[in-house]
Design the sequence.
């Protein structure tokens, strides 16, 4: 698979945090050596996520997104990251006091810093697959619920408890 470095589009790159570049470089390094789609079951009816390795100082995760699946509002603790949509299309809702949406078509890379809060949804009719890198290693995620126009913390998940 040769999504990097020649055939990707980047949404909202961040020049502020070198960890963003670490995560993006880790995606490129992983994709240069592996085809993550080889092991994906596109017929499984639920969203799946698995840590599939560590490269260049970042954790690598593979996520499958059946039609209609979503993450819910969350952040990635202190980790910055990047992800690329390998197949399908995803919609990312980003919280900055209001929700804004971006469409992440195939081969679109999204970079983010440690303060990023989002909800990712597959509004499509077929399963999407994405590859994610987090630097430093993903250790915690905060979950949120949208209540009367504001996000409220509902839980904080620690590595090993729920994933």
Sequence:
């Amino acid at each position: 698979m040769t999504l990097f470095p020649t055939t990707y589009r980047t949404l909202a790159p961040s020049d502020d945090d070198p960890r963003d570049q670490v995560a993006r470089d880790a995606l490129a390094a992983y994709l240069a050596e592996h085809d993550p789609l080889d092991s994906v079951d596109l017929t499984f009816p639920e969203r799946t996520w698995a840590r599939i390795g560590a490269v260049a100082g970042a954790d690598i995760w593979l996520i499958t997104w059946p039609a209609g699946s979503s993450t819910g509002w969350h952040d990635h603790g202190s980790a910055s990251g990047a992800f690329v949509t390998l197949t399908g299309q995803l919609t990312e809702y980003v919280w900055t006091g209001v929700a804004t949406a971006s469409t992440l078509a195939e081969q679109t890379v999204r970079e983010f810093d440690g303060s990023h809060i989002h909800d990712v949804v597959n509004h499509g009719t077929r399963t999407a697959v994405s590859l994610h890198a987090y630097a430093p290693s993903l250790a915690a995620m905060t979950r949120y619920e949208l209540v009367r126009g504001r996000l409220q913390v509902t839980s904080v998940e620690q590595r090993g408890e729920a994933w």
About this structure: Residues 1-14 have pLDDT under 50 and may be disordered.
